[in-house]
Amino acid sequence: MPPSTTATGLPALQIDHVSRHYSMGESSIRAVDDVSLVVPAGEFLALLGSSGSGKSTLLNLMAGLDRPTAGSIVSGGRNLAELSPLELARYRRNTVGMVFQSFNLLPRMTLEENVELPLRLAEVERGERAARVQEALERVRLAKRTGHRPSELSGGEQQRTAIARALVNRPKILFADEPTGNLDSATGEAILTLLREIQSTMDMTIVMVTHERHLAERFADRLATMGDGKLLSTAATEAHASTQVTTQATTGAGQ
Amino acid sequence: MKLRDMTELAVRNLREAILRNSLTTLGVAVGVASLVAMLSLGVGLQQLASSRLAKSGLFDSIFVTPKTNLRGPGAGPPATRAAAPKARPLDEAARVEITKLPNVIEVYPQIRFFTEVRFDGKPFATMVAGMPESSKQSGAFDGMQGAFFSSPNADEAILQIEFAKELNPQTAQLIGKELVLRYAERQSLPSETGGGAQNSGGFSVVPKEKHLRIVGVVETEPASGFGGFGSGRLLIPLPVAETLRAAQVNDLRDVLRDTSSDKPAYASLTVRVKSPSLVDATEGKIKQLGFGAFSLLDASKSMRIFFSVFDLLLGIFGSLALAVATLGIINTLVMAILERRREIGVLKALGAADSDVKQLFFVEAGVMGLAGGVFGVFFGWLIGQALTLGTNIYLKRQDLPGVEISAVPWWLIVGAIGFALLVSLTAGLYPASRAAKLNPVDALRYE
Ligand SMILES: Nc1ncnc2c1ncn2[C@@H]1O[C@H](COP(=O)(O)OP(=O)(O)OP(=O)(O)O)[C@@H](O)[C@H]1O
Ligand SMILES: [Mg+2]
């Protein structure tokens, strides 16, 4: 069983025979082909696989950015495939946080303003916003230079800002598509350490796409490997085993 | 998203591409300016024309006659005349009664008579006209030499320029000089003693003289208004003219009429109402009182129709520039979508609904339209002022009084800004819905 579950014990995501096909004229591309997977609440899941195997497509389906051609994705008791566009937008706004390989901060806004953006979308009261932004920035250990624009900061700082932005609306699930892909290995490790820490302190479910198996084995609870749109295998990592043995170790890894 | 956040984001986005968006806004401003300039010209010319016509007294006046007068005395068989016993004399009581009608500014008789004037010992023959006090405000005396009558009862005269030139080619020197008006006064004959109660109604004509001081010389023909047959060349205050009780041409008819000669009846009265739109109703009321009445309202109606068409044409020409500006807005926003694909994708990934994205683009279009509208109205007003200035410089060279040929009334300001907003929102419709439909996965896929 996963390290922690919600009060109701429901999994964070339940993926059932999900497919996502792209039709290219006559032929059709099966980017995701009949994948079934359960992500327990509080788990740190890593999606691995060669390029073009469908990792990003599956992540986007889970994050409510895309709709499956077939199958169901149930989160919080609701099937994402059946939600209206507006309900899906609310799901992305309130239940989900997203982090990308290329950070995707809005270049014309300061870090603070970037982090504030989801609060604007969620219509959070103005008076409350500054404190929420500050809280999120502190969590990713970015208190200085928050009035600067993204281009004036390092890649690691930008990714921390992106994580703060993903967290500011207090989501249940954090999706990260190759969050360390544009970073050097030391910075990448620091980011993964941060994610691991967020997972344990905020009781967050994290689904991360990555190419770096060795990092995934150190930081994730479980590895899911994809190939050609299909889910090839899932396996618990040693990191997971260590959390099972002693919770103290998790906190240690998080620092 | 709340409107305030939306507007903040929109303004921020517009500021970022400041040059392009300023140029687009300028395009809207030029469109609105041309529309406003065209329409202000239309409105200005219309105001000019209608004020000229109003000054002529043609369209806010009603011409009142006694009913019998229309038929003419003795024109019909006696039976017909007897059949109209209600015909009322147009006397002082009638004048007071008409004056008390709502919206009536003034009721005055047309007094003009041909007489002899002595100036510098030489005789001149001219037409004398009584001017009501209200004619001062009518604008007919604008730009005159000298001044209007100092009071309604002053023994003063204003000369019309042609007549003034007969007296002295240097018309300015006439002001302050005196002239003598020779006229004939009607005096009723004393009732024949012992002849019973019957009054014969006869009168004698006594020659008289009146000394008048020349106070002004006027170029227009203020006395050529409605009901004015022939033009007055020597103008005197109407009350003065009335006290002269001159033997007007029209009064000859009174001789034949069965009225007490002591109480003079008017051949006609001119009724001035507050505005041309009130003429119809007042005309009806006067008819109910038992008088004949008519006006030239129809002519003013067709003038209004003419100017509506004129304004419409000017508006269409002005709108062409705005139509081009609309394409500019569409172009700018479509470009912005291409440029901000990724940003739209991010917004959607963060939970923006399609409607949020749509509204964001909509507000951006609206802000450009609003700003363009405000600047455009200002530019349009400037153009109108420039046209007026140019026209007036030309008129001044010709020694003519200045005119206001362009007018920007409040409805034009509000209307133009509102129209610019509406047009820009319509222009934003397509880009906004295109942005809203953008697939976030596609938008985020590539660097
Ligand atoms: N919009 C699309 N139209 C057609 N084919 C698509 C589309 N999006 C993705 N695909 C295809 O689906 C397959 C899976 O793509 P996906 O981006 O999920 O792979 P990935 O595992 O994330 O690869 P990478 O590691 O390179 O990011 C690829 O073959 C891709 O070409
Ligand atoms: Mg990918």
Structure description:
- A six-stranded mixed beta sheet of chain A has the order 6-7-8-3-9-10, with helices on both faces.
- Chain A has helices at 55-62, 85-94, 111-121, 126-139, 155-167, 185-201, 213-219, 238-245, 247-254; strands spanning 13-24, 27-39, 44-49, 70-75, 78-79, 96-99, 173-177, 205-209, 222-227, 230-236.
- Residues 1-7 and 245-255 of chain A have low confidence and may be disordered.
- The longest helix of chain A has 17 residues, at 185-201.
- Chain A has a domain at 107-170.
- Chain A has 255 residues and is α/β, with parallel strands linked by helices.
- Chain A is globular, with a radius of gyration of 18 Å.
- Mean pLDDT of chain B is 79; it is low at 69-85, 194-199, 226-230 and 249-262.
- Chain B is α+β, with helices and mostly antiparallel strands.
- Chain B has 14 helices and eleven strands.
- In chain B, α1 (3-16) packs across α12 (354-397) and α2 runs antiparallel to α13 (410-437).
- In chain B, strands 3-4-9-6-8-7 form a six-stranded mixed β-barrel. In chain B, strands 2-10-1-11 form a four-stranded antiparallel beta sheet.
- Chain B is elongated, with a radius of gyration of 34 Å.
- The longest helix of chain B has 44 residues, at 354-397.
- In chain B, a hairpin with a 2-residue loop joins β3 and β4.
- The two termini of chain B are 27 Å apart.
- Chain B folds into two domains: 3-53 and 303-445, no CATH class; 112-247, no CATH class.
- At the A-B interface, α2 and α3 of A face α1, α11, α12 and α14 of B.
- The structure holds adenosine-5'-triphosphate and magnesium ion.
- Residues 22, 29, 31, 49, 51-57 of chain A line the site of adenosine-5'-triphosphate.
